[in-house]
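> tool_call: predict_assembly(chains=two)
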Amino acid sequence: MSAAASRYETVIGLEVHAQLSTRSKMFCGCPTTFGAPPNTQTCPVCLGMPGVLPVVNRRAVEFGIRTALAFSCRVNEACRFARKHYYYPDMPKNYQISQYEEPLAEDGFLEIDVEGGARSIGIQRLHLEEDVGKLLHEGTLETAQASLVDFNRSGVALMETVSRPDLSSPAEAASYLRAFRSVLIFLGVCDGNMEEGSLRCDANVSIRPRGSAPLGTKVEIKNLNSFRNVQRALEFEVRRQAQALDAGERIVQETRLWEADRGYTRSMRTKEFAHDYRYFPEPDLVPLQIDRRWVEEIRAELPELPRAWRRRAVAQYGLPPYDAEVLTQSRALVDYYEAALRESSQASGAGTDRPKVLSNWIMSELLRVLPGDDERAIKSSPIPPRHLVGLLQLIENSTISGKIAKDVFQKMFDTGQDARTIVEREGLTQVADEGALGRVIDSVMAANPKAIEDYRRGKKEAKGALIGQVMKETRGKANPALVNRLLEDKLSQT
Amino acid sequence: MHRPIHELSAAYRRGDLTPVAVAEDYLARIGAFDGKVGAYLTVVREQALAAARESELRWRAGSPRGPLDGAPIALKDVLCTAGVRTTAGSRMLERFVPPYDATIVERLRAAGAVVLGKTNLDEFAMGSSTEHSAFHPTRNPWDLARVPGGSSGGSAAAVAGGLAAGAYGSDTGGSIRQPAAFCGVVGLKPTYGRVSRYGLIALASSLDQIGPFAQDVADTALLLGVVAGHDRRDATSIQAPVPDYAAELTKGVAGLTLGLPDEYFIDGMDPDVERAVRQAIEVLQGLGARIERVSLPTTRHSLAAYYVILPAEASSNLARYDGVKFGLRVPGRDLVEMQSRTRAAGFGAEVKRRIMLGTYALSAGYYDAYYGKAQSVRTLVRREFAAAFARVDLIVAPTTPNVAFKHGEKEDPLSMYLNDVFTIPGNLAGIPGVSVPCGFSAAGLPIGLQVLGRPLDEARVLRAAYAYEQATTWRSRRPELA
């Protein structure tokens, strides 16, 4: 713990904007596919043309309710949209349709794992709004002669969730964001892709002398678009504020921008220049009445959430908490894992540590070769769960060695074929014939008298070199345990 | 050939007239007289003739699409028309060509109506005289020195002057009923939500409503029936069946109770107007209606509330005109300068005034005192009407306190605002109202009788207007343009 952190108490609240994975936008029927050519996914409504009107996307409301229920929020019986005004060229109407005084849901919490246990972080509110477009500058913002606007993202459904200022360290903030993302992914309401901007985060942070009651002046930090940046930016900001207080300065209420490349926050605007958003109820939309039966239907269909799954995986499968944590970064990954476990229990000869072996292979091999851990990547994996289990069986019944298995895995990934097919075609079956192996060992020993002499003079490492030679001669197919035993026998014979 | 649409369609059916001949006649009249009147901003001659030819084929084949097939109509230039520029009477949108049709335009095309062109208005529908169009003023066909009312003055003047058989406008605080009264035609503001606003360039979203102008009440019923009804693109449009308004017209007023609000006969109103309206009420009494006095005391606060709500919503709706995406762009050294110059050059004085008023009313710390308070007044107005309608079936009143004034007569914005004092409460309450001609002033200028009804009770509003119209002969008098 740094000196600053020990003298001061840190108070952090996070605002997370999540793009909902609805097929169409929040207030019009335009598609939401990421990465389409600029301005091809637009219509008069999301371009804010004169005369157009918004219509609420029912699916987005459903996703909002689903998330609210997962966070144990109260879903309000009626909610309302409001216009939030500010001029920016990526926002076609120069107002954003959002929610203000009457949000969709309020008062929930999210449990996160922290050092030495779990903490419940309050969620103040959850509301729906529309996303803005994107500006493209020729060169840098300062030198660009022109800026271009891409409205494909304009009007995409966003869900904003505001936490209470319950987070007490940058690490906790990162942990909250990780848990938050994982819940959204499990609910199927957001793909959680931070690189593509599906999840964006702003933080409010203040510090106060340890034990002092009133909150310090808060500073809003924008542009925190990865777990690492959340933690780094907050660490920087806590240090900056502590140094300022130590120097007898006052903290100014302001909005600061995190410059990830340079590793510091810089002032964007102070309180005096804060926007007056001139909120008022959106007259083009009637208040949304949320049918209680609908809410109960959505509640009944809530999936198992990541925390519950982790608890079950640890208790039922004996999985280490770390493995469970990695797997729950993606619901598709958990589905893959569960499918593999099912295959495994049906297959013969399953070892008792199969759950752990499977998670090892998924974490270290599958995630290495796949382009990501999202649903798209997992679902289109060339190695389905059944093939992975088949590979593990070949190791367990000693058909191939663990080392060969890694090569086979790569070939499975490249070709989409199952392990047995590849092993048979390429003659990779482990050599476990004592006679054949004995002959290889004899010839290796004959060719390496120096190594034998070294070994007998007590240089035990020399055996490793001989084993290596044998493996090389058999192109890795020799059963390593058998080679070891035979070699030891032969070395001790004379 | 300027005659009501129901007569035109009867003539089409008999083969006495053809849609092409009628469209040509209207286009010829526009060519001859619109230089004087200035009702139109854009005339779509070729498109109109093409539509008329198609209509003619349908009539000839004995399969017209309904009573509006072949009817030459005009649209206020806030109704978006695909491929035809839609200006809202502003420099800001002088060259704006919408890529889509407003819902009502779609419905009119589907009904076979022949759109002649787009009519003039006060810029962004802000005004009561159609003097404040960025392009040219419109003149009242009854007296070219006078205004036609506004903001839908172009549509009213077109119907009055025989430059269209019928027309549509929008009414936010009286912008259909007031010009209808000034021009001696029928003008209806339907219940808020009865007609889809999709494609109407918004002034104040919670008040705007599209409605028809017609030569008589029967046409008004037809023009409303074709465009009314739910639209899934407008979340504020009402899901309620659309009655056959025309079939309801002839039921008369016998047995109906008409409320006469004390607050609608005020000091300073034109005595000719008061006399004409009181005579009209006697006519309705003679037809069997019962008259009862009602009180709507919040009426006097309506104007104040309206001039908070309207500018607030307008300041928001007009924020999109910034030179970035469509409409006018005046270059600048940077974004903010470009936007400022664009808005400075693109908007007229009245628009700027209301944007400033509205921006102020919505700003932090003032919201409750202005917008919040105005919404409370609105609730009171609504309740007052509801209470009155628990006792009476309809409310009858003057449409305006005065007849059409002279161009340039009302320089002061406040005196201009007072024109709408009798029409604004209907918008605040969201109820339907019609203005039907009820006589002339000593100077020969038309006077309008306003009939207000319960939400979605357009049928009864039109029924009373029809009974009155049929009992009088005002509609036989026409202005002379030649």
